[in-house]
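Long-time lurker, first post.

We've been arguing in lab meeting about whether zinc ion would sit comfortably in this protein at all. Half the group thinks yes, half thinks no, and nobody has a model to point at. So I'm putting the question to the forum: if I give you the sequence and the SMILES, can you give me back a predicted structure of the complex? Inputs are below. Any interpretation is welcome too.
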Amino acid sequence: MEEYKIRIQNAKQVIKNADYILIGAGAGLSTAAGLEYSGESFQRDYKEFIEKYHFEDLYTASFYLFSSQEEKWAFWARLIKLNRFRKPLKLYQELLDFVKDKEYFVITTNVDGQFETAGFETEKIFPVQGDYRFLQCENACHNKLYDNQEMVEEWLKHTENLKIPKQLVPKCPVCGGNMEMNLRKDANFVQDENWYKQAKQYEQFLDEIEDKNVVLLEIGVGFNTPGIIRFPFEQMTYKHLKTILIRMNKDYPMVRQEIENKAISFDEDVNKVLNDLKERAL
Ligand SMILES: [Zn+2]
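Top reply:
Settle the argument with this. Predicted structure of the protein with zinc ion, as tokens:
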């Protein structure tokens, strides 16, 4: 049997045997699911912004320092609408099929909310780095987040010449200062009550699975912030007797030697791998 098929067979078996699945997901999952951060759809969807600000990709664009709040929120309205408030992505829905009958939890550095959109239970998702859905005070003067869904619709409706009207610019209800996206990029990142609650749920899940049959399903996690998912997942695989790591990663599929016999790694396309895993039901 060819080597890929053996890996698929093995992965099928360990997923079948697992009582617990912990998903760790990074940018690679959303890219595989079709959210484009560069390339053709980026060029099309952000055409006017690219012409004006010379953006090269969405990631660097999200760090751009706009010279006015009116311009800033016109850009973010488009980004949030396209990446956060959208129809569920098929790949995420397929992923849900793998875990819905198990005890599962999701830790992710993705901020696009796609696990929630696909139907994963909100209290089983820990989006460590923030969520496009929320605003916070730019000065982090208080620990509260503000749902931006309705604002985004208003901003989109009233944008002219890549600006929203002055009266729609969000202001902090406490200090009166500017608002910011709730994304971790500096020390001002607000971790609200819910963030701490999810962090605790994650801790509890980790305690619970220590001696259980566990699959760590790591997808598209690179080396931007390896301390959040990648390294801890490797540690758990090494330390816990009944924990197996399945790593799906096009760019960094390598696995440390110490856990080679407890890990199955795929550098093939995630869509293909999940499809092949699904064949002849688990
Ligand atoms: Zn404030």
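For your lab meeting: The chain has one domain: 3-278. The CA atoms of residues 250 and 267 lie 4 Å apart. Whichever side wins, do check it experimentally.
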